[in-house]
Amino acid sequence: MTNEIYKVQKLDAPVDWVVEVPGSKSMTNRALLMAALADGTTTLRGVLFSEDSRNFLDSLKTLGFQVEIDEEAKIVTIKGLNGGIPVTTGEINVGSAGTAARFLTAMLAMAEGTFVVNASEQMKKRPMKPLFEVLTELGAEIVYMEREGFLPVRIRGIGGRFSVNKMCSVKLDISESTQFLSALMLISPMIKSGLCIEVTSARKDGAYIRITRKMMEQFGAIANFDGKKYYMKSGISYTARCYQIEPDVSAACYFYAAAALTGGRAIVKNVTWKCMQGDLKFLELLFQMGCVVNDTSDGIEVKRIAKDKLKGITVDMKDFSDQTMTLAALAPFADSAVRIQNIGHIRLQESDRIHAIVTELTRLGIFCEEEQDAITIYPGTPQPAVIHTYEDHRMAMAFALIGLCIEGIEISNPMCCRKTFETYFDMLDRLCNQTNNL
Prior knowledge:
Elements: E1 5-7, E2 16-19, H1 25-37, E3 39-45, H2 51-62, E4 66-70, E5 75-81, E6 89-93, H3 98-110, E7 114-118, H4 129-138, E8 141-144, E9 153-156, E10 168-172, H5 179-186, E11 195-199, H6 207-218, E12 224-225, E13 229-232, E14 242-244, H7 249-262, E15 265-268, H8 281-288, E16 292-294, E17 301-303, E18 313-316, H9 324-330, E19 338-341, H10 353-363, E20 368-370, E21 374-377, E22 385-387, H11 393-399, E23 409-412, H12 424-436
Parallel strand pairs: 2-15, 3-14, 6-7, 10-11, 18-19, 22-23
Antiparallel strand pairs: 1-23, 3-5, 4-5, 7-9, 8-9, 11-13, 12-13, 15-17, 16-17, 19-21, 20-21
């Protein structure tokens, strides 16, 4: 494989795979932030090492935190300073990591000092303005270094200049990204007077927000929600601890989809119904499409009887939209149309994902209908083609699945998967060789 083109191996038989995936990206970056803000030394196990998490780790080291990394053992140890930042000036580069961009920007806005937050060209295009507006309202000074409302920025932090007797109250629109809300919740222990966030958008909650709340609770800080407002009481703090990060269910779903696509079976180790990640809902979707989903002692298993065709479906994917591309790769092989709706926000992610999906499926000869916040994909036989990936890791990983069933599928710029799962295509090669050499 080169960085330019990856040729997918068409399989001679259904998959029969047992795999282990890296740790969750969303949980890794949340845990890194809370460890940095905790009082004392936290040990994180099962850490994901990817482009995004490395940018987060590099940023913490640049800010002076003591960070010890054992990549082979997937362990990171961080000494937190109870909400303090070791330095008062510096420049970090968050790369293309949306979580790092939102979380670290919020942290620096609450800290004492002046900092620059830089980013990749891709991240510079992603929305930040609602978060900037709230941070400015709280008292931070933000100077736009290129385009207004976008990174890079220079931030002069608040440095604890809050009234100790009055809870801070802000309003926030999360229609473009729930990461804005997670960022504010995660840094709330830095606001000793407490924080109330009123969500003004129609969307008030979501799977990743629930992960944030649950992880905060595990680190000793409670975030309450009354259906409209989030409350973090005065005096909350994070407790340093040893914390195990779950396997990445988003990554697991590619292998489950391979089982669904080929009429085989796949088990992903340590993925259980107890995992808190919203992408578990994708397994329920596969069940609705005709797959069998079982618990095993190793992890959840998905299988499909080869003679039974996948069923078409209409599904609201707002809460697990990272799997939109995965379902889109399955859709041409269903017995009727697949409609994916309530996903308009994915136009503002690593790529305009709705348009990217429609463009690439059309390139494969599959008829689609594109709407502002929905896609309808009709059954058909994909034709050989080189898939463009738009520097979007999920486009690369999901659309490679089509090549398991169709000869001549190639993936352009496959190593954009470094963002979350840098060994994905190596693993796919190994598994395909294993299947074809049986």
